[in-house]
Design goal:
Strand content: 25-35%
Shape: globular
CATH class of the largest domain: Alpha Beta
Distance between the termini: 52 Å
Largest sheet: 9 strands, antiparallel
Length: about 375
């Protein structure tokens, strides 16, 4: 199939920042791209060939959109899988496959597959709903982690439960409880696999989280860990990919325990926040490799050219409304600093609005600059 400068159409479900960064690669290769998103102000709208506004969870909307394209992918897991299955049955190529997405979309199913396939993960229990969990609270060891099995995203739908009253006001939906694992590092490995089965991994990255928002503040590549831990994390990520059989990217989030065991936390079958550094720091970005994988092209080099650190730009607490980015000129004066603004017009506390990548041959210097960037730039609203 001729993908380039042709009538071929790639469809993307979801028009947020991940889709927008993917579109920089489709434009580079002149691939015609359609996007579906519920927001009329979606970041992707300015960069795709054709934009459709609609509900990603609505069967008819997703099905009718998918019938207009040759290959369909997604930048968010919260999509109607029944529609994807029907499209696939009717000959539309969908990557990652609906089968893979079904295994991942529900965290209870996801965790059960880890258990079945001897993939190390925190001990867990699945509950039909919150009331069912509350009725068995005396049989649970506090503290534990509560997660809704579906529709959680980017730190939402997750809460540490230290006492029974912490369950108050949580939604009465299917959920899981997980053992709270003491750890010294949060790590991630991005695996990329094409339809032919060629598979590669990006370097292990280290993530530093915001203490309140449960969001990544910094992604550091390569992770500052021993080689034996790097090897173990990579091997486990490849084992996870064997189980879930992705075509495209699979981001595997992990904990490194105090005795250097690796525990799988969650996975995402799409471009991932932990891979944004790759745009500037890698030979082939995660977005280009996702595209190569779903088009069944040879995969690009996943090695890093230089140390890379990503700083997430999120809305500052206490500010909501039309966004203003303060002090961007100051950070642009620093060598190796590249800001990415996602195109969201409205800010609110902790909303992901962009990121900044810092590249440097010296990791310590890169980390110092990342801290400087974090302290300098502000995401606020108009006064």
């Amino acid at each position: 199939m001729n993908y380039f400068s042709s009538d071929f159409k790639l469809g993307i479900l979801g028009g947020g920042q991940l889709g927008k960064m993917m579109l920089s690669e489709t434009r580079k290769l002149d691939i015609q791209t359609y996007v579906l998103d519920p927001s009329e102000d979606a970041p992707c709208k300015i960069a795709c060939n054709k934009f459709f506004q609609g509900d990603l969870m609505d069967f008819e909307t997703v099905y009718n959109f998918g019938k207009q394209v040759d290959i369909l992918t997604f930048e968010i897991e919260l999509v109607n899988v029944d529609a994807l299955e029907k499209l696939e049955f009717e000959g539309i190529q969908v990557y990652p496959s609906p089968k893979t997405l079904r295994k991942i979309q529900n965290k209870g199913v996801q965790k059960s597959l880890y258990q079945t396939n001897n993939i190390p993960t925190a001990a867990f229990r699945i509950f039909e709903n919150l009331e069912n969990l509350k009725s068995q609270i005396l049989n649970l060891t506090l503290p534990f982690v509560w997660k809704c099995t579906e529709f959680g995203y980017d730190g939402y739908g997750v809460k540490i439960i230290r006492e029974a009253s912490d369950l108050d006001n949580l939604p009465n939906v299917e959920c899981i409880t997980e053992e709270l694992i003491p750890f010294k590092n949060e790590l991630a490995v991005i695996v990329v696999r094409n339809l032919s089965g060629e598979i590669k991994t990006y370097p292990v990255v280290e993530m530093e989280f915001h203490p309140e928002a449960n969001q990544v503040e910094y992604v550091i590549c390569p992770a500052r860990i021993e080689e034996k831990v790097t090897q173990k994390a990579t091997e486990i990520a490849l084992k996870v990919a064997e189980v879930f059989e992705p075509v495209g990217l699979l981001a595997v989030e992990m904990f490194q325990t105090h005795n250097d065991e690796i525990i799988v936390n969650e996975i995402a079958p799409r471009p991932h926040n932990s891979g944004h550094y790759s745009i500037e720091a890698s030979y082939t970005s995660q977005f280009e490799n996702h595209l190569r994988a779903i088009l069944n092209l040879p995969l690009g080099n996943t090695d890093s050219k230089v140390a890379g650190i990503m700083v997430n730009l999120v809305g500052e607490a206490g500010f909501s409304g039309n966004v203003v980015y303060e002090n961007i000129s100051e950070i642009l004066n620093i060598d190796g600093v590249t800001p990415h603004i996602y195109g969201k017009k409205q800010t609110r506390p902790f909303r992901k609005m962009g990121h900044v990548t810092i590249v440097n041959e010296n990791m310590n210097e890169a980390r110092r600059i990342a801290e400087q960037v974090k302290q300098t730039i502000r995401v606020v609203s108009e006064k």
